[in-house]
Design brief:
This protein is α+β, with helices and mostly antiparallel strands and about 450 residues long. It is built from nine helices and four strands; from the N terminus they run H-H-H-E-E-H-H-H-H-E-E-H-H. A hairpin with a 1-residue loop joins strand 1 and strand 2.
Length: about 450
């Protein structure tokens, strides 16, 4: 999204600033992701449309050439035969000279369409960057969850091994071990599902980014703790609400579509106006004929030029119907634009509130993590001192891993919400990569 100069500095606060690997992945996606490749094709189509829109400003030049040979025989008491042959060359030029501004309006519509496609290109990249951020954070959490599942499997396997030893010693019955065996089966299933889910998510991310593969080793095992930027969020919100919404990418698209509709209305109005064009032609005809013992040769050169006028006086109310349809379209576009402004205002306010909740949740999760880490460290110390059994420490370790995952999930939630908020209000530094011509609005940048 785009807005006027941003007074709030957000560089250094986004997911890729805490995870440099993600920045490289976004750079790769910028160049070779399927999403951006498709958008580049759309840009090429829009450029072709702009050229077609300017066709009326250029003269039309055509040429022709032919060669013919004819023969005739006449029988009317006496017989006579004649033959003729020759070449013809011609060139014609035509140029519209006055159409009440309809040609310029047509060209402007095509130029606006190209600008709309450019905004959509930028919006696609903005959305792609947001998806890459959220999915990358999710991949890290999936990796942590898989680690936790594998560790829990080790715990239940160790418990089963202990109970199997007890069964051999006769200290427990055969039926008492069934629960431990079932736990191993269940946890093994969880590990298999988590492994498949993680591999699938990596493949989907690689496809989104335009990569052949994304290995497990390339995914970090931790999300750094971010510093909340709630004061910046408040200032960004105020700036956005007081003048930034209409200048978003989508806001610019709505404004351009309205301008296109106005131009199409004018073009339609001129359907019943007289229009004028200039035409010029040149032709050369060489011919040779023979008959009754005589041969003649001739060359005819022709020139022509003039101004032509055409006027559709009545077209069965087609123009009237088109004007009514265009005006209805404009009312619909104005309504959509108004709804977009209202909905976006409500959305960005809610996002700012939810960001605050996410920051609070992250703070609580960090406190739980600190307590769990302290308890785990104490348990390790007691294990070294021989005052606690290893099985008890492993259980505490499992609890610490679960708390670590919860803290990581809270960090990911905050970072995702912050990145989405920054993107929504038009302050995303990722758009610094985009050419200025793709961002500038008719209101200025």
């Amino acid at each position: 999204m785009v807005s006027n100069a941003q007074p709030v500095e957000v560089a250094g606060t986004l997911p890729e600033d805490y995870l440099p690997q993600l920045k490289d992945l976004i750079d790769t996606a910028w160049k070779q992701s399927p999403t951006m490749m498709l958008q580049n094709i759309n840009l090429a189509v829009a450029d072709a449309g702009r050229i077609r829109g300017e066709v009326a400003f250029w003269p039309s030049l055509s040429g022709s050439a032919s060669y013919a040979s004819n023969s005739a025989r006449v029988d009317s008491g006496t017989s006579s035969t004649s033959t003729s042959s020759g070449a013809y060359y011609g060139i014609n030029l035509s140029q519209q000279i006055f159409a009440w501004g309809a040609n310029k309006a047509t060209a402007d519509v095509a130029k606006l369409q190209e600008q709309i496609i450019k905004r959509q290109w930028v919006d696609a990249f903005r959305t792609l960057a947001g998806s890459l951020r959220s999915q990358y954070l999710a991949l890290i959490n999936q990796k942590i969850a898989l680690r936790n599942s594998i560790f829990q499997l080790q715990l239940v396997k160790a418990d089963l091994a202990t109970q199997e030893e007890m069964l051999k010693d006769g200290t427990i019955s055969a039926g008492a071990i069934n629960g431990a065996r079932l736990s191993v089966q269940e946890q093994s299933l969880w590990v298999d599902k988590a492994t498949q889910s993680f591999a699938h998510a990596r493949r989907m991310f690689a496809h989104l980014a335009g990569l052949e593969d994304l290995t497990e080793e390339s995914i970090p095992s931790e999300i750094p703790h971010p510093d909340p930027s709630l004061d910046k969020a408040e200032r960004l919100l105020n700036t956005f609400i007081h003048g930034g919404i209409e200048n978003t990418l989508q806001g610019q698209v709505y404004a351009m579509e309205l301008k296109q509709t106005d131009l199409n209305y004018w073009i339609t109005r001129t359907d019943l106006y007289p229009k004028f064009s200039f035409g010029a032609g040149y032709s050369l005809s060489n011919s040779q004929s023979a008959g009754n013992g005589t041969v003649s040769q001739s060359a005819v050169v022709s020139y022509s030029y003039g101004i032509n006028g055409s006027w559709t006086i009545f077209n069965g109310f087609s123009t009237r119907a088109n004007k009514i349809g265009i005006l209805a379209t404009k009312r619909s576009q104005e309504r959509q634009f108004k709804s977009y402004i209202d909905d976006t205002t409500e959305t960005v306010i809610d996002n700012q509130k939810q960001l605050g909740f996410a920051a609070q949740a992250m703070d609580i999760a960090e406190q739980h993590l600190a307590l769990a880490k302290d308890g785990y460290n104490r348990a390790n110390t007691e294990l070294q001192e021989g005052t606690v059994a290893k099985v008890a420490v492993d259980s505490i370790r499992g609890g610490f891993y679960a708390t670590e995952y919860a803290a990581s999930a809270a960090r990911a939630d905050y970072l995702s919400r912050w990145a989405d908020f920054v993107s929504l209000v038009g302050a995303d530094p990722i758009l610094n990569k985009v050419p200025a011509a793709y961002l500038n609005s008719h209101h200025g940048h």
